[in-house]
Amino acid sequence: MDSLTEENYIKSIYALSQATGEVFVSELAKKLNIKQPSVNSMMKRLATKKVVAYAPYKGIRLTKKGKKEALSIIRRHRLAELFLVKVMELGWEEVHDIAEQLEHVDSKRFYSRMDEMLNFPKFDPHGEPIPDRNGKIYAQKRIALSDLAEGLTATIAAVGEDEKSFLDHLNGKGLQIGDAVTLKKREPFDGSVTLGHKSKKEILLTHQVAERIWVEV
Q1: How far is CA 81 from CA 31, 134, 210, in A?
Q2: What is the dihedral of CA 132, 75, 134, 42, to 10 degrees?
Q3: What does the alpha-carbon distance between residue 92 and residue 110 come to, in Å, rounded to a whole number?
């Protein structure tokens, strides 16, 4: 197994362990679409490198070294996404898979220069925070659009996923990061919401979509 495979594991462990600090082999196998014995084998390898704390039948935790590596990978991925949008003018729905490949480029100079060219950004094109070179993340207070009170206006700050189908859906609705929206009505039966928007047209979103959009009041 090469370093690219190891990095994919580390990044996935970080993502899955955000709520509880740990992740189980079955969860990791499902996310990566890999059989559990292969995951166990990789955990032993990463434990030897002191990247994870791992024991059979127990949760997997990233060590301090592992978290540092995970944040470095995430930094590279999100910088790459922003570069592809801002400099190469690709759509925000196009860049995830390309950034998945670029995040494995082993060159500090490459990403330092990219950071400089983008004027040291704090957020990627989907509104996710970009860790700085020391792994520090700029945090902001956000709530799900589905939790916004009726009558309030908020700014779209981030989206909860970057799958192309979801972003294509938002494109079709005319919604982008930075847009101000007013929650005009929430349906009590299914939680769907009607938004006021700068386009002066009302936009209807299902609860499933609204809960994946993060806003700042």
Answers
A1: 21, 19, 23
A2: 170
A3: 22
Give me the CATH topology for the region 73-137.
Answer: Arc Repressor Mutant, subunit A (1.10.10)
Which two tokens mark 120?
């040291």
Whole-prediction pTM: 0.87
Q: What is the mean pLDDT of the chain?
A: 92
CATH architecture of 3-62: Orthogonal Bundle (1.10)
User: Per-residue pLDDT tens for 39-85?
Assistant: 989 999 999 999 999 887 788 999 999 999 999 999 999 999 999 99
Cβ–Cβ < 8 Å for 159, 212? yes
Are residues 184 and 192 in contact, defined by beta-carbon separation less than 8 angstroms? no
Rg (the chain; Cα; Å): 19
Kindly give, in sequence order, each residue whose CB lies less than 8 Å from that of residue 44, ignoring residues fewer than 6 positions away.
Answer: 54
Instruction: Give the per-residue pLDDT at 122.
Output: 93
pLDDT (tens digit per residue) in 163-198? 899 999 999 999 999 999 999 999 999 999 999 998
Instruction: Compute the half-sphere exposure of residue 142: CA atoms within 13 Å on the CB side of its CA.
Output: 20
Superfamily covering domain 143-216? Ferrous iron transport protein A (FeoA) (2.30.30.90)
Where exactly are the structural domains of the chain?
A: 3-62, 73-137, 143-216
